[in-house]
Amino acid sequence: MEIQKTTRKMCYIFPNGDKYEGECCRTSNGVVMRKGFGTQTSVSGVTYTGEWDNDMMNGSGTLTHPSGSIYTGLFRDNMYHGQGIYKFPDGTEYNGTFNNNRLQGDGEFTDLQGLVWTGSFHNKAALGLKLKVNMQ
Question: In 3-state terms, what secondary structure has residue 107?
Fold first, then answer.
């Protein structure tokens, strides 16, 4: 399937009520795909603003959930993948590497008291965390 290189801006409302505003392109078959920069808002209140490629979240972007959680960073095939920051609804935050929506690799976790813990994360486990001390 060949994709045209030119992108155009559009506004599209999906049958389920989701709305996309941004750049798109047309395949050689005539199918319109999200490509470039755009914003999609779901009826459930989830909003993604960022880069699209191959009709998926690919590149840099921000995904905001109604719960208050926010992910800002890199995406690959609609998943958190690469460097990013995930802010949890309770105010805690993870800043580090993601692999297919999971915490994976070196990162920092900031707890409710503002203490920063560094280490290697793997899914929900984080063995050998160390308190990061700020010497000012």
Answer: strand
Write the pLDDT tens digit of every residue in 47-94: 999 999 999 999 999 999 999 999 999 999 999 999 999 999 999 999
Dihedral of alpha carbons 122, 126, 95, 45, sign: positive
Paired with 63 in beta bridges are 48, 71
**Residue 108, amino acid:** E
- The closest of 43, 29, 34 to 61, measured between CA atoms, is 34
- Distance (Å, rounded) from C-alpha 18 to C-alpha 7? 21
| Residue that the structure tokens 């990013």 belong to | 84
Residue keyed to tokens 């399937």: 1
Contact indicator for 46, 33 with CB cutoff of 8 Å: no
What DSSP state is assigned to residue 27?
Answer: B
The partner residues of 64 in beta bridges, in order of sequence, read 47, 70
What are 89's two structure tokens?
Answer: 């609804």
